[in-house]
C-alpha cells in the first residue's frame, strides 16, 4: 500500500474480491461477501439486459427497447447513460465498458461469475453424465443447477425484455426439473417424488409431462387408483381449458396402468440412491490368521458365492449357503474366512450379524434390518417400524448393489428369510445349529468336527511346532479330549501358548479329568461347554468375576460404561479386564467400546455365576447397579430435554451414577443407541427389589416410544411391567407402568386402551399418593378425550391436571396441560381463549429454555392461530415446531406438524403447498401414529387435491380415510361422507 486512499474506480484489481451476479431471482451483485447497490428497477433492468447478453455489446437503441418497449420516455437515452454510469462506479474497473455506441459487461475468467452461466455449465455436465449412464451423478448435478434459482428470475425487473427472459428462464427451470424427476423415477425414488410432483402439477396444471411423471410415481408407489384419477383430472382440465385431448404418451401410460403392465413396475435402469459418500459397510469380523483345514468346504462355499457375480450366474436371484453343525464346530470361523476371500466379488459391502439363535431371546428380524439399513447409509429417522416394510426397504436399498450378508447363529429359517437380500448379485452365508431344509433354494452344508490331522495342525499353529513336536502323543490326547471341536482346540491351545511354563502333557492331564470333560465330549452343546470350562478355569480371579457377572445382563451386547457399573469398577480397569477376556475368546468385541458374548458362552457364564458367585447376593447387586446406571443416565437425558420437569425429582433414588452429557444431541444419541439394552434391562428387573426403579426407567426413557422407532418393544415392556406390579401388589409402580402404557397407546393411535390404562393409573395414583402419576394420567386422559370428541370430560381432566401440576410446582407439566386445554377450547368454539392458553403454555416453556416441549407448545399455538384465521402466524409457529421435531428425531410430531401445516395451507387457499405438506406427512407417519392419524391426513390431502382440480385423486384419498374411520367407528367418518356426497351426486 502507498497510503493513498482510492475511490472504487482507482482500486487495483488484486485488491478486489471477485464479482458475483445473479439473475435467477432478484437481480443482485456482490464483491466477495459485500452486497453492491444495483439502483432503481430500471437500472437493474439495464444490468440484467447486459448480463444476459453474455458479454456481447448492446446498442443504446436495443437497451431502450429492452427497458421501455415501443413507448420510451423522451429522455430515455440520457437515462440509459445515467444508469450505465452509476453501475460502472459500483462495479470493478473494466467490467462495464462502452463501445460501438453501446455497452457490455465483460467478466474475465476468475474475475466474476453469473449464476445463470454456472447453472448452464452444471446442466451441461449433468447431460454428459446422463448420456454416459451415471444417473446418480446426473441427478446430483441437476440438483446443484436448480439450487442456483432463488425465486422468480429477474424478480421485480420491469420491461418487455425482462418479461420475455423471465418466461424463458422459468421454462428452462421446469425442463431441468422434469429431467431430474425423470431420473428420480429411473432410480426408484417414486414415493419421494409424489409430494414434489403434486405441488408442481398444481402450479402448472396444463403441463402434461409433469402429469405423466406423477401418474408413474403414484403407480410405482402402489397407488394405482390415484394414478388413474390424475389422468381423468387431466383429460377433463384439457377439454375444459383448451378443448383438446391428452397427448398420445399420456393416453398410452393410462392404458398401461389399466393393464398393470409389468414394464411399469420397476425403473428402466435401476440404480442405487446417490449419496455424497456411498456407504460400503465392512462388518465382517476379523478372520483368523491360523485358519486350518476345511479345504473342501472352503472350495464348495467359494464356488457358490462366485456364482452370484459370474456371467454364468446372471439371472440367479441370489446365492445362499447355510452351514449347520453343533456349537463350537467352527461354523462362524469358516463362514468368515470364506467371506473374506470373496470380498472382491462384493464391492458394495459386507454385512454381519449375530442372530443369537441359541439364546432365550433370539434377535428379532426387524431389529436386525434396522441395523443393516443404517449400516447401508439409510437415515434412521426414515426406517419404518414393521418387519414387512423394513424387509421391503432393505431389498430396495440392496437393488443394484453387490453385497455379501453373513447371518451368524440363526435359530431357524423363519428368522433368516426376511434378512436375505433377494437381489441378483448379492449373496448370503448362514450359520446355524439346525439344518435349514425349509430354507428354499439354499445350498446346505453340514459341518462336522475336524479330522484328527486338521485338529493337530490347528493346535500346532497356535502353540508352536517346537513344543508340539516333542510331545506329539500328548498333543493328540489334547485335541481328542477337545472332541476335535475347533473352538475347544483354539481355547486350549491359546491357554497353553500364553503359559510358557506349561507342557503339553500338563494340559492333556487337565483335560483328562472326566469330571470336567467326559459328558461334555459327546455330541451337541455339551462338547462346547467342556471347552468353556477349560478357559474359565484358567482365568485370574478378577477376570473370572467379570466373566460371570457380565453374562447376567439380558441385552444383546453391553457398553463399556454399563459393564463398569455391573462390575463396580473404574472404566479403565473394566476395559483392561474385558479386553483380556476378548483375548481368551470368551468375550467378543462387537464394536469399539461394546462387548458381547457368544450365545452359548453367555449361558455358560450365567451357570458359573449361579455356581461360583459368593455371596449369591452379588448377582442381584450387579444387576441392581446396571439398573441404577441406566436409570440415572436416562433421567439425565430426560432432564436435558425437559428443563424444569419435576419427574426426575420423583424417580426412585439410585446408588450408582450414570453418564453426564454436554448437550441434548449427545444425550439423544446415547438413548437411541442404548434403546434395546435399556428396554431389556427394564424387562429383566421386574423383581421385588428392582420393580419400582425398572418402571421409573421406562418412564424416563419415554422418548423411545414418542420417536416411533421403538414403540412396539416399549409397549410390550410396559405391559409386562403393569402385570408384574399388579402381581407384586405395588400400586405406585403399577400406576406409573400404566401411565407409560397409556402414553404409548396414545402415541400409536389406540385411544380406547389408552383411556382404560390412564383411568386405572389415575385411580392407583390416588390410592398410592403418587402426585406425578396423578398429574400425567389426568393430562393423558384429557388428550385422549380431545381425540374422542369428549370435550366436557377432557376439560375436566385437564383442569384437574393443571391444578395438580401447580400443586407439585411442575411448570413444564402445567404448560403441557394448558396447551392441551387450548385444544378443548378450540374444539368448543372458544378461539380467543384457545390462543391465549397456547400462548401462555408456550411462554412458560420458553422461559425454561425448553426446546422440545416448546415445540409442542408451538404446535398447539399453530392450531389455535389457524382456526382463528391468523394463518401467517400459524405457519410461522408450526414451522418453528417442525424444525425442533426434526432435530430431535421425533417422527410422530414431525409428521403431525406437517399435517397441521397442510391444514393451514388449505385455509390460506394454498392448495398446492397443502398437498405437498400432506404427502410429506403421510411419508413421515408411515408405520407410526396409527390409522386414525393417517385418516385425518388423507382427508386434508383430499381437500388440497380437490382444490387444485385433481378431484379423482381426492376421491381416492377420501374413500381410504372413510374406510379407516368407519372401521374405527370414529365420528370423523361423517365429515368425510359429506365430502364424497357432492361428488357422488355430480
Short description, anyone?
With 986 residues, the protein is of the alpha/beta class. It has 45 helices and 15 strands.
Describe the protein.
Helices cover 61% and strands 6% of the residues. With 986 residues, it is of the alpha/beta class. The strands form four sheets. The protein has a five-stranded parallel β-sheet, sandwiched between helices. It has a four-stranded mixed β-sheet with strand order 3-2-1-7. A three-stranded antiparallel β-sheet has the order 4-6-5. Helix 34 (751-768) runs antiparallel to helix 35 (771-787), helix 35 (771-787) packs antiparallel against helix 36 and helix 37 (811-827) packs antiparallel against helix 38.
Average pLDDT, rounded to a whole number, is 85
Question: Helical region count?
Answer: 45
Structural class: alpha/beta
Say how many strands there are: 15
Choose one word for the global shape: globular
Rg from alpha-carbon coordinates: 35 Å
Helix residue percentage: 55-70%
Amino acid at each position: 500500500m502507498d497510503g493513498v486512499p482510492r475511490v472504487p474506480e482507482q482500486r487495483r484489481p488484486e485488491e478486489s474480491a471477485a464479482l458475483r451476479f445473479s439473475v435467477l431471482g432478484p437481480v443482485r451483485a456482490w464483491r466477495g461477501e459485500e452486497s453492491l447497490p444495483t439502483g432503481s428497477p430500471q437500472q437493474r433492468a439495464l444490468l440484467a439486459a447486459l448480463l444476459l447478453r453474455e458479454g456481447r455489446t448492446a446498442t443504446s437503441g436495443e437497451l431502450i427497447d429492452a427497458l421501455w418497449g415501443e413507448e420510451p420516455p423522451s429522455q430515455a437515452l440520457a437515462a440509459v447513460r445515467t444508469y450505465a454510469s452509476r453501475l460502472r462506479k459500483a462495479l470493478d474497473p473494466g467490467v462495464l465498458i462502452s463501445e460501438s455506441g453501446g455497452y457490455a459487461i465483460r467478466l474475465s475468467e476468475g474475475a466474476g461469475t453469473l449464476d445463470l452461466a454456472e447453472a448452464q455449465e452444471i446442466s451441461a455436465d449433468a447431460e454428459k453424465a446422463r448420456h454416459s449412464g451415471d444417473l446418480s451423478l446426473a441427478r446430483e448435478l441437476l440438483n446443484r443447477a436448480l439450487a442456483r434459482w432463488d425465486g422468480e428470475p429477474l424478480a421485480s425487473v420491469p420491461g418487455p425484455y425482462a418479461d420475455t427472459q423471465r418466461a424463458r428462464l422459468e421454462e428452462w427451470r421446469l425442463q431441468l426439473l422434469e429431467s431430474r424427476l425423470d431420473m428420480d423415477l429411473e432410480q426408484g425414488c417414486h414415493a419421494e417424488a409424489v409430494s414434489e410432483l403434486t405441488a408442481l402439477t398444481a402450479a402448472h396444471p396444463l403441463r402434461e409431462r409433469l402429469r405423466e411423471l406423477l401418474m408413474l410415481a403414484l403407480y410405482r408407489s402402489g397407488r394405482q387408483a390415484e394414478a388413474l384419477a390424475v389422468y381423468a383430472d387431466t383429460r377433463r382440465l384439457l377439454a375444459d381449458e383448451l378443448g383438446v385431448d391428452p397427448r398420445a404418451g399420456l393416453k398410452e401410460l393410462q392404458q398401461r396402468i389399466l393393464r398393470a403392465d409389468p414394464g411399469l413396475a420397476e425403473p428402466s435402469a435401476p440404480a442405487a440412491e446417490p449419496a455424497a459418500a456411498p456407504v460400503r459397510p465392512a462388518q465382517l469380523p476379523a478372520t483368523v490368521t491360523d485358519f486350518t483345514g476345511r479345504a473342501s468346504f472352503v472350495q464348495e462355499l467359494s464356488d457358490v458365492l462366485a456364482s452370484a457375480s459370474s456371467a454364468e450366474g446372471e439371472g440367479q436371484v441370489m446365492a445362499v449357503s447355510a452351514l449347520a453343525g453343533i456349537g463350537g464346530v467352527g461354523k462362524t470361523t469358516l463362514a468368515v474366512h470364506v467371506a473374506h476371500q470373496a470380498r472382491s466379488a462384493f464391492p458394495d459391502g459386507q454385512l454381519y450379524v449375530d442372530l443369537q439363535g441359541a439364546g432365550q431371546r433370539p434377535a428379532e428380524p426387524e431389529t436386525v434390518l434396522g441395523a443393516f439399513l443404517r449400516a447401508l447409509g439409510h437415515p434412521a429417522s426414515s426406517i419404518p417400524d414393521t418387519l414387512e416394510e423394513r424387509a421391503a426397504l432393505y431389498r430396495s436399498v440392496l437393488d443394484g448393489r453387490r453385497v455379501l450378508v453373513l447371518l451368524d447363529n440363526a435359530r431357524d429359517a423363519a428368522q433368516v428369510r426376511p434378512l436375505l437380500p433377494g437381489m441378483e448379485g448379492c449373496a448370503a452365508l448362514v450359520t446355524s445349529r439346525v439344518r435349514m431344509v425349509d430354507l428354499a433354494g439354499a445350498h446346505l452344508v453340514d459341518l462336522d468336527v475336524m479330522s484328527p490331522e486338521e485338529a493337530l495342525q490347528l493346535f500346532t499353529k497356535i502353540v508352536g511346532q517346537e513344543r508340539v513336536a516333542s510331545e506329539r502323543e500328548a498333543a493328540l490326547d489334547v485335541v481328542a479330549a477337545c472332541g476335535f471341536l475347533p473352538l475347544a482346540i483354539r481355547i486350549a491351545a491359546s491357554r497353553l501358548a500364553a503359559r510358557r511354563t506349561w507342557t503339553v502333557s500338563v494340559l492333556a492331564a487337565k483335560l483328562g479329568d472326566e469330571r470336567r470333560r467326559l459328558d461334555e465330549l459327546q455330541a451337541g452343546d455339551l462338547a462346547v461347554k467342556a471347552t468353556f470350562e477349560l478357559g474359565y478355569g484358567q482365568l485370574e480371579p478378577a477376570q473370572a468375576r467379570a466373566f460371570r457377572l457380565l453374562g447376567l445382563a439380558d441385552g444383546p451386547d453391553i457398553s463399556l460404561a454399563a459393564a463398569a457399573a455391573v462390575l463396580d469398577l473404574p472404566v479403565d480397569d473394566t476395559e483392561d479386564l474385558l479386553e483380556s477376556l476378548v483375548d481368551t475368546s470368551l468375550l467378543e468385541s462387537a464394536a469399539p467400546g461394546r462387548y458381547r458374548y457368544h450365545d452359548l458362552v453367555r449361558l455358560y457364564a450365567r451357570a458359573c455365576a449361579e455356581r461360583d458367585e459368593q455371596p449369591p447376593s452379588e448377582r442381584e447387586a450387579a444387576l441392581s447397579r446396571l439398573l441404577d446406571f441406566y436409570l440415572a443416565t436416562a433421567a439425565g437425558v430426560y432432564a436435558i430435554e425437559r428443563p424444569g420437569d419435576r419427574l426426575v425429582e420423583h424417580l426412585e433414588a439410585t446408588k450408582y451414577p450414570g453418564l453426564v452429557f454436554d448437550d441434548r444431541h449427545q444425550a439423544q444419541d446415547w438413548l437411541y443407541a442404548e434403546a434395546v439394552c435399556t428396554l431389556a434391562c427394564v424387562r429383566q428387573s421386574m423383581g421385588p427389589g428392582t420393580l419400582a426403579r425398572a418402571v421409573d426407567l421406562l418412564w424416563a426413557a419415554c422418548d423411545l416410544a414418542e420417536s416411533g422407532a421403538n414403540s412396539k418393544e416399549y409397549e410390550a415392556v410396559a405391559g409386562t411391567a403393569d402385570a408384574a406390579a399388579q402381581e407384586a401388589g405395588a400400586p405406585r409402580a403399577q400406576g406409573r407402568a400404566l401411565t407409560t402404557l397409556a402414553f404409548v397407546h396414545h402415541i400409536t393411535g389406540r385411544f380406547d386402551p389408552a383411556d382404560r390404562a390412564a383411568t386405572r393409573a389415575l385411580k392407583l395414583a390416588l390410592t398410592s399418593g403418587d402426585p406425578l402419576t396423578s398429574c400425567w394420567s389426568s393430562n393423558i386422559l384429557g388428550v385422549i378425550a380431545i381425540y374422542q370428541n369428549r370435550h366436557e370430560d377432557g376439560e375436566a381432566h385437564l383442569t384437574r391436571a393443571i391444578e395438580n401440576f401447580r400443586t407439585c410446582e411442575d411448570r413444564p407439566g402445567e404448560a403441557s396441560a394448558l396447551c392441551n386445554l387450548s385444544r378443548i377450547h378450540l374444539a368448543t368454539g372458544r378461539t380467543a381463549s384457545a390462543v391465549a392458553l397456547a400462548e401462555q403454555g408456550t411462554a412458560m416453556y420458553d422461559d425454561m429454555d425448553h426446546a422440545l416441549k416448546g415445540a409442542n407448545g408451538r404446535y398447539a399455538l399453530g392450531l389455535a392461530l389457524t382456526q382463528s384465521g391468523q394463518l401467517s402466524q400459524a405457519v410461522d409457529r408450526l414451522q418453528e415446531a417442525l424444525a425442533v421435531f426434526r432435530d430431535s428425531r421425533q417422527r410422530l410430531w414431525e409428521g403431525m406438524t406437517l399435517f397441521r401445516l397442510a391444514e393451514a395451507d388449505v385455509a390460506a387457499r394454498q392448495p398446492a403447498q397443502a398437498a405437498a405438506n400432506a404427502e410429506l406427512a403421510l411419508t413421515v407417519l408411515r408405520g407410526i401414529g396409527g390409522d386414525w392419524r393417517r385418516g385425518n391426513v388423507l382427508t386434508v390431502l383430499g381437500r388440497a387435491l380437490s382444490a387444485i382440480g385433481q378431484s379423482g385423486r381426492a376421491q381416492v384419498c377420501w374413500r381410504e380415510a372413510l374406510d379407516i374411520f368407519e372401521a374405527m367407528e370414529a365420528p370423523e367418518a361423517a365429515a368425510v361422507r359429506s365430502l364424497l356426497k357432492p361428488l357422488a351426486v355430480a
